[in-house]
């Protein structure tokens, strides 16, 4: 028996960027659970090696791809036989076979050869192609481009769902049947009475003027011989924007919901047939979903439901025909990110009788999704559900921080037997639910919270002996999950829910240690690129649902730094290559428009959300707390120039590097001339003012120690509490650790007094707040489920405390630099991270100055171990080569495997 095996996976990307992972699936009805079908002509393939041996490295691979499983099993890979390729690459290997065709199936496996003289074939995996050419679409867009008499189009729009159906016959034996659907804004699709897939709130949002995403499904096993019927219900989503005829210069609108559907059927005799959306379908808007609005909620009237409407026996003679409507402006593309699912359920914890027929339900956890309800009563009775994150002192909902979002679902009973209901086209951010009009006395068993976010694995976990840090990281997980909605949004509860760039500039990196977020952020880079103006400007929000083009540096920097995250964490070079021209266009635009005297002078938001001098304030008005905008914009621009130098090399644009270098040199000189004061601090000596030039390498070498001393002095004056806003906090924990203040960083991470992450925990928070004083600030801006203040806390926890970090020259954790810090006050740590090459584990236990450390490195990876404050006394295996001392650090290499080490710390007590 082989002592090692492989796990394979398929990473599908556009030749330059987007990825999507497909699990192994059979061509059965089970495949309806996930969209299939891609429009990528050169997908990328990945696999992982598993081994119980040490120092396992792949030496070669051979990939087979066939158009059927039978051909693959017979050893006849008619699409691609790579031959034996001498390479250790096992992540993002480009397909180089025959040209792929529309609706084609691709079955593949890989044989891997190792340095242990082992080789093995993997299991078989499969992917399917979508519609590869515009001419492959034969269907027509249908809809109803007006409001019904019972609707209203206002600031608080009420627009009922649209229902479409079509009966058809199948008279031959089916070989394959592939359904392609673009339902805007959101859709649910049913075939012969059964829901197609388990995706929700699909498709994911885009700027519909630029891109329209469609999903594809293999429905071969869902069709009947003889009569069939298909039904689609459309919700509003971001397409029919929630706030119509309101702030027209701010909010972009796209039109009424519309549908494009094509079912391609191939029979066993080789003939084919298509079912296409057109004006022969049947339509009504007078159905049970009376309104659906992401901000305001969904109303469902079960007395108006039409049972069996997606089956062939339904009588649709009273329905009218749809309108043929204009296609949206955007280009049709396959949705390559899996999209949203109900990822978990949450059992209610407490229910209280507030007054009369009003009850308050407590789920025990703030999250984003909806409530599933069981109810039994008389026909026409209404149950009203209203949502909030917290309660007022009298036990009623606190909704002032939701602004004008009405966040109310209403269900009208059909009467009779027990009914179950949950909304289809809205989500809420909430912990508490006000229940009004429920027949009888509601119980906990009548309600379940449904957690909704983009389908992705939780790929990292970190637990320590410090309960506060553990809870902060748990709260971070819930906030991140809550705000993955086909794009990374800022909050899930109030009338905003926008994909702000500034929230994710470094936040995306930390998130990647908890979630496998590669496809979500690759898609988001496309959103950002599509929102760029001809002149080069990038908005604060992308997709550009709001017309906010403030021309900051610190917010649009996310475009470049998120691409860097995808490269470093996942080895995704193509995202860099694809977006490099647009990134350079923006850099040139900012220099051309806002550089004065070698400084970038444009900044709007400052160090957003610095802890204010008064607990009621949203933003500080104290100039001694706030950092100069030109300082921050210029420092960020300098840092982005360094990143663009690396990107230029990756993109084959090495000729750009010299220009970046010259500009960076000029900026650095002007920056220090303007802002370095007394040779030991920058500008007004805020933590952020000193931290940015330190971390970005702008401080003259002979002044680094002095600026670092002023930085820590300032923090100590604040009692080692947070004194940075969104910008400073993005680099704070790593900056402190880099310059030897790791114990101070740990104190900042675990402080339970204001301001800090631990303070939120001490106040009962189960997610991360928008403000450090989120429990006392003006309700105009105190979301209790945000991510922007996480800064680099998660990144620091994994990279510094656990010591798990990719090597820049070998991205995607092909090579890992492992350098844990064993801070005072922390006795144990256990971290796991699922990298593209496999699971990395780092666990240590400290007893006084002795540390027992276990490290696991996945096959086909290596690790560089650096120990700055410890001596290696014992290891249970030989190391690769001799250990060396470099700049006072012990350094050695380890191949894959599990290692147990004993260390002695020095200079720690």
Residues in helix, %: 10-25%
Radius of gyration: 28 Å
Based on the coordinates given, report the CATH architecture of the largest domain.
Alpha/alpha barrel
Quaternary state of this entry equals single chain
Key attributes of the depicted protein:
Alpha_rhamnosid, Jelly Rolls, 19% helix, 5 domains, globular, alpha+beta, 10-stranded mixed beta sheet, disordered N terminus, 7-stranded mixed beta sheet, alpha-L-rhamnosidase, signal, hydrolase, 909 residues
What do these coordinates show?
- The protein is of the alpha+beta class and 909 residues long.
- The radius of gyration is 28 Å and the shape is globular.
Quick rundown:
With 909 residues, the protein is α+β, with helices and mostly antiparallel strands. It is built from 15 helices and 49 strands.
Helix/strand layout:
Blueprint: E1 4-13, E2 19-22, E3 44-51, E4 58-66, H1 69-73, E5 80-81, E6 85-86, E7 93-94, E8 105-114, E9 119-121, E10 125-128, E11 142-143, E12 162-170, E13 174-184, E14 186-191, E15 194-195, E16 211-218, E17 226-235, E18 258-267, E19 272-276, E20 282-284, E21 289-293, E22 297-301, E23 323-324, E24 331-334, E25 340-347, E26 350-355, E27 358-375, E28 382-388, E29 390-391, E30 397-398, E31 408-412, E32 419-421, E33 428-436, E34 447-454, E35 460-464, H2 467-482, H3 507-512, H4 518-531, H5 557-570, H6 573-594, E36 595-596, E37 599-600, H7 629-650, H8 657-675, E38 676-677, E39 681-682, H9 687-695, H10 704-717, H11 726-729, H12 732-738, H13 742-750, H14 757-762, H15 793-801, E40 805-806, E41 815-818, E42 828-835, E43 838-847, E44 850-857, E45 862-867, E46 870-875, E47 880-886, E48 889-894, E49 897-905
Parallel strand pairs: 16-24, 22-31, 41-45
Antiparallel strand pairs: 1-2, 1-3, 3-7, 4-5, 4-6, 4-8, 8-9, 8-10, 11-18, 11-23, 12-17, 12-20, 13-16, 13-18, 14-15, 14-17, 18-19, 21-22, 25-34, 26-27, 27-32, 27-33, 27-34, 28-31, 28-33, 29-30, 35-42, 36-37, 38-39, 40-41, 42-43, 43-44, 44-49, 45-48, 46-49, 47-48
Helix pairs in contact: 4-5, 4-6, 5-6, 5-7, 6-7, 7-8, 7-9, 9-10, 9-12, 12-13, 12-15
């Amino acid at each position: 028996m082989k002592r090692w095996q492989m796990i394979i996976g398929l990473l599908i990307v556009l030749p330059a960027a987007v990825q999507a992972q497909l699990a192994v699936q059979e061509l059965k009805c089970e495949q309806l659970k996930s969209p299939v079908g891609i429009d990528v002509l050169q997908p990328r393939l990945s696999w992982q090696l598993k081994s119980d041996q040490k120092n396992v490295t792949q030496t070669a691979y051979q990939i087979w791809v066939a158009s059927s499983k039978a051909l693959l099993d017979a050893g006849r890979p008619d699409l691609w036989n790579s031959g034996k390729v001498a390479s250790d690459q096992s992540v993002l290997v480009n397909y180089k076979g025959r040209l792929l065709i529309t609706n084609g199936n691709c079955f593949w496996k890989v044989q891997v050869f190792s340095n242990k003289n082992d080789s093995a074939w993997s299991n078989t995996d499969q992917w399917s192609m979508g519609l590869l050419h515009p001419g492959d679409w034969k269907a027509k867009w249908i809809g109803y481009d007006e409001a019904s008499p019972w609707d209203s189009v206002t600031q608080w729009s009420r627009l009922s769902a649209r229902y479409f159906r079509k009966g058809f016959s199948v008279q031959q034996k089916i070989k394959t049947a592939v359904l392609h659907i673009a339902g805007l804004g959101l859709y649910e699709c049913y075939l012969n009475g059964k829901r197609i897939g388990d995706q929700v709130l699909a498709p994911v949002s885009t700027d519909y003027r630029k891109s329209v995403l469609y999903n594809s499904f293999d429905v071969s096993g869902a069709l009947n011989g003889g009569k069939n019927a298909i039904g689609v219900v459309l919700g509003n989503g971001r397409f029919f924007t929630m706030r119509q005829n309101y702030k027209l210069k701010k909010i972009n609108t796209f039109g009424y919901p519309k549908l494009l559907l094509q079912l391609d059927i191939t029979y066993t005799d080789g003939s084919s047939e298509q079912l296409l959306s057109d004006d022969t379908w049947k339509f009504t808007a007078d159905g049970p979903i009376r309104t659906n609005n992401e901000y305001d909620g969904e109303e469902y009237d079960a007395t108006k439901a039409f049972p069996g409407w997606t089956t062939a026996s339904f009588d649709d003679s009273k329905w009218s025909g749809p309108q043929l409507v204009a296609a949206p402006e955007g280009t049709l593309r396959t949705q390559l990110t899996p999209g949203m699912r109900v990822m978990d359920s949450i059992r209610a914890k407490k229910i209280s009788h507030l007054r009369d027929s009003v009850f308050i339900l407590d789920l025990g956890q703030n999250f984003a999704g909806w409530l599933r309800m069981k109810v039994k009563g008389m026909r026409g009775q209404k149950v009203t559900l209203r949502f909030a994150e917290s309660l007022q002192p009298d036990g009623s909902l606190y909704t002032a921080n939701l602004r004008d979002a009405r966040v109310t679902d209403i269900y009208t009973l059909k009467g009779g037997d027990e009914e179950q209901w949950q909304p289809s086209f809205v989500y809420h951010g909430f912990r508490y639910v006000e229940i009004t009009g429920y027949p009888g006395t509601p119980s906990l068993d009548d309600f379940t919270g449904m957690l909704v976010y983009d389908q992705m694995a939780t790929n990292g976990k970190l637990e320590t002996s410090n309960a506060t840090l553990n809870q902060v990281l748990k709260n971070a997980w819930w906030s991140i999950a809550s705000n993955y909605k086909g794009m990374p949004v800022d909050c899930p509860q109030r009338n905003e829910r926008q994909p702000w760039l500034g929230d994710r500039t470094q936040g995306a990196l930390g998130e990647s240690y908890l979630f496998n977020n590669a496809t979500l952020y690759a898609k988001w880079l496309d959103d950002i690129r599509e929102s760029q103006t001809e002149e080069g400007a990038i908005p604060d929000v992308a997709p550009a649902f709001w017309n906010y083009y403030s021309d900051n540096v610190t917010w649009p920097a996310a475009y470049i730094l998120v691409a860097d995250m995808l490269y470093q964490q996942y080895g995704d070079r193509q995202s860099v290559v694809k977006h490099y021209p647009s990134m350079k266009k923006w850099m040139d635009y900012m220099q051309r428009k806002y550089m004065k005297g070698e400084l970038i002078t444009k900044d709007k938001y400052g160090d957003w959300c610095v802890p204010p001098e008064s607990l009621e304030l949203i933003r500080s008005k104290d100039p001694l707390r706030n950092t100069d905008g030109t300082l921050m914009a210029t420092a960020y621009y300098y840092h982005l120039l360094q990143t663009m130098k690396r990107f230029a090399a990756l993109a084959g644009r090495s000729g750009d590097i010299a220009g970046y270098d010259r500009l960076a040199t000029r900026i650095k000189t002007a920056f220090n001339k303007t802002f370095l004061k007394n040779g030991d601090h920058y500008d007004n000596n805020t933590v952020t003012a000193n931290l940015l030039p330190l971390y970005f390498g702008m401080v003259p070498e002979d002044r680094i120690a002095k600026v670092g001393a002023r930085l820590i002095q300032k923090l100590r004056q604040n009692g080692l509490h947070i004194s940075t806003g969104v910008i400073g906090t993005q680099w704070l924990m790593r900056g402190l650790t880099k310059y030897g203040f790791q114990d101070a960083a740990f104190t900042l991470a675990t402080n339970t007094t204001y301001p800090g992450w631990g303070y939120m925990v001490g106040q009962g928070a189960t997610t991360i707040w928008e403000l450090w004083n989120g429990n006392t600030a003006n309700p105009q801006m105190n979301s209790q489920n945000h991510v922007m203040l996480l800064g680099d806390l998660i990144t620091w926890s994994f990279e510094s405390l656990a010591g798990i970090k990719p090597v820049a020259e070998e991205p995607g954790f092909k090579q890992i630099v492992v350098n844990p810090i064993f801070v005072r006050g922390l006795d144990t740590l256990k971290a796991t991270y699922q990298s593209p090459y496999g699971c990395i584990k780092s666990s240590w236990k400290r007893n006084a100055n002795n540390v027992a450390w276990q490290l696991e490195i996945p096959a086909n990876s290596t690790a560089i171990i650096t120990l700055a404050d410890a001596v290696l006394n014992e290891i249970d295996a030989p190391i690769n080569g001799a250990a060396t001392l470099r700049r006072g650090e012990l350094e050695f290499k380890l191949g894959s495997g599990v290692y147990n080490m004993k260390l002695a710390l020095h200079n720690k007590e």
